[in-house]
Amino acid sequence: MELATTLKSQTVQNHVREVGINPNYWYAVSWANQVKVGEIKPVMIWQQPIAVYRDVNGCLHALEDICPHKGVALHKGKVQGCNLACAYHGWEFNNEGDCVGIPYLSPEQKLPRAQVRSYPIQEKYDLIWIFPGNPTLAAVCQPPDIKEFDDPEWFRVPVPAKMKAHFSICNENSIDVFHGFLHENLQGWFAPALISLKETESSIRTEYQVSYKGRMAKFLGLSERADKVTTLSVTTEYRYPHFYSSLQGISTLYLMRLPVGPRETHSVAFFFFKVRLPKQLLKLLQPLLRVILQRFVLLRFLAQDIEMMESEQQTYLTNPQRRYVEINPAIIAIQRLVIRQYEQFVQQSKQSQTNGN
Ligand code: FES
Ligand SMILES: [Fe+2]
Fold first, then answer.
1. Ligand 1 lined by 89 (C-beta under 6 Å)
2. Residue of minimum CA distance from atom 1 in ligand 1
3. Do 254 and 168 belong together in one domain?
4. pTM above 0.90, yes or no
C-alpha cells in the first residue's frame, strides 16, 4: 500500500519501546568462525539463552542454555562427539536436546525424562543463524537473500554493532534518512527528501533523495567530483526483522538485527561498494581497504548513531509516559509494523495453544 510522504506531526506509539519480537524469523547470532569444532558459544535472542556448539563432524547445533537437571548454563560444558555434556554432573544431550547419558548411572538403569529445547540452526554468509520461533515454520522462512555476497563486482565490508537500546529505536535510526544532520562533520548526506513510502504486511519501503559533496563522497564513489553536489536516490527497506538499503546501485547495505533483550540490540551489517579500482589491485588492497573503510568511515558514523540511540533509550527509561513528536511518516509506519508483527505472533501462539489443548 502506498502511503503519503507529507511530513506532518503524528502520534508516537510509546509502547513500541516495550514490544517483543516475532521469533518466527531467522536471526544472525554470531560469525561462523567464532564457533570452531568442539567449541561452544553462548548467545541470546530476546532473553532466550542459547548454547551454540560445533560437533566433531563440523555441524552446528543450538540448545537452550539451561541444563534440565539443575539449571546450570550448558555452554560451560563440553562437546562430546555430536553431543553436549553439562559441566556439573556430565549429563549428556544429543542435538535434539534429549538426555542420552548420565556418567554415574549404570547402563541398565533407565535414563530420566530430561529434555532441553533445540533450535533450527544454519550457517550462511559467514554467519550463524538461529530460528527461535515455532520450528515447523523454519523451512518456509529463510535468512535474507544477499546476492552481492559472492559477486566479485562488489567489495564487502562487515560491521558488527552493539547498542543499549530497544530494537525499535535501532530500526527507526536505520530508516530515518532525515538524520544526515548528525553526520555533517563526516561529510554525510544532506538535503534529504522522502519521495515514496510503501507498507506491506511485513515490510516498509522508502525512497529518499539525498545529496553528497566532498572528498569522502568521491572516495566512496558517490559523486564524480569532490567540489560538486551529487543528488542520488536511496531506497531503504525494512523486511521484518532485517533491513536493506541501496544507494542507486553504487552501494548497498544489509543490516541483520539481533534483539538481545528489551534494552539491548546487536547487529551485523554488510556494506557493499563498487570500488573503482582494477580487479588485481583491489584484490591486493582488499584487507587494507576494508580496515580503512571500517575504522575511518563506517565505525565513525556508527558511533554517532549509537550515541543518539542510547540517549533516546535512556530518556525513555527515565520517563516512559513522556510524549514525543514525530513528523516522518516512515517512522510511524515502522512502529506500526513492529507492533503488528509482535501482536500477530502472540495471536498465533494463543491459537496454537488452543488447538493443542
Ligand atoms: S546441572 Fe547439568 S548435569 Fe547437573
Ligand atoms: Fe546514521
1. yes
2. 70
3. yes
4. yes
